[in-house]
Design a protein that fits this description.
Blueprint (H helix, E strand, L loop, with lengths): L11 H23 L5 H8 L3 H29 L1 H21 L3 H29 L2 H33 L12 H7 L2 H11 L6 H6 L3 H12 L1 H14 L13 E2 L4 E2 L1 H15 L2 H14 L4 H29 L1 H24 L13 H20 L1 H11 L6 H28 L3 H23 L14
Antiparallel strand pairs: 1-2
Helix pairs in contact: 1-4, 1-5, 1-6, 1-8, 3-4, 3-5, 3-18, 4-5, 4-7, 4-8, 5-6, 5-17, 5-18, 6-7, 6-14, 6-17, 10-11, 12-17, 12-18, 12-19, 13-14, 13-18, 14-15, 14-16, 15-16, 15-17, 15-19, 16-17, 18-19
Length: 472
Amino acid sequence: MNESSTPTQANSAFIILISCIATIGGFLFGFDSGVINGTVDGLQTAFNSDSMGTGFSVSSMLLGCAVGAFFAGTLADKHGRRALLIVAAVFFIVSAWGSGIATSSLEFIIYRILGGLAVGAASVMCPAYISEVALARYRGKLSSVQQIAIITGLTAAFVSNYFLADIAGSSLSVFWLGYETWRWMFWVELVPATIFLLALLAIPESPRFLVASGQQARAQAVLSKLYGTIEGDIKMREINASLAADHHKPRLSDLIDKTTNKIRPIMWVGIGLAVLQQLVGINVVFYYGAVLWQAAGFSESDSLLINVVSGTVSIAACFITFFVVDKIGRKPLLWIGSAGMTVTLALVAFAFAGAPLDEAGKLMLSDDMGVLALVSANLYVIFFNVSWGPVMWIMLGEMFPNQIRGSGLAVAGFAQWAANFVITLTFPILLASFLGLAGTYSIYALFSALSVVFVLRYVNETKGKELEQMEG
């Protein structure tokens, strides 16, 4: 599809509709990631686990995410983007039910890993699907909706957790049908997961997958429905021309440059973007927000309410990206976000650094330092969600050439979730160590500073380019 194409040549309403259906996977990605936030105390009590055991219970899903992201990318090159999203929807349903009904730590971890497989698959397949059906001129906007959906899912989990705990008295209280409140926090996810599964049955397969897999007739039909007959024919030829000269199906070995026998440079950039997005520590706020703010001296109720505020602020920040990403580009948003996160993380670390501990080991922040910590933390969340939150996923969905998009997403997605696992698993350990909150946040600030250099030196702009123009 050329940039000169007019809106009347494409079925824009249909493209937007199917893209929005795909973003329900992002909502579930966010909900499944955020719901754990309010259940940590319940898990510790129910399974009698220590800080290390709790850290693994919280982060166990991320093992599934890493595996799910890796295999979803490669399996999607064989079976299709839509097919993998349907499998992910089924896994979301099974995981939501099982996590709430679990009677032991092992059983809980197994169900969370199943949920992780779904989250991992959704995290790479949703942006891939959207980028492969959307027009270049508003591809960034539609792809940024994925991050809005993720944060909306996170916020929905925070709101759900807050009200369930408020109505029941706490996350540990017995609620409906004799089950503890924290179990119901997981079961709420069954509603959007079922909607996702049913909605996926109504969307077409990615036309770029169909071309790459040799299903020319189906691809032509989908392209005509998306872009119109004439532009569909043009796009069909462009997609075919962008694939391997011998027209072999995409495979993992395509990530190796055949002339140098080395991994393609674009793959290292993708891995760098994926890993740095996690090393700035954002998911500590999302997964451990309640624990973090309680450690800083706030009550459980106030901590859960702060999570809701942070989630709402995040959604607002994502809408900024929605309106500007196709105007000013991806790269400027990334380096501006990196600079902002570096400053705000340093301020949070400063606020925590001088605070004494009470008898329970919680920080006793002064009024001024408490305000500084809250404001800086929420500004950090804003900078992240204006930049690295949505833009990293936008770029991973569009920066790879057609031949290696599935494989590139598989490897980058695996790296992203592996880094997520490391950050999530180590936070309780760092929090309990001599570093405390101040030292831990200083580490995240350092990685944020490194991300500024990475973006300026290695990341190339993709704004306005057709997927067939991407080079690797």
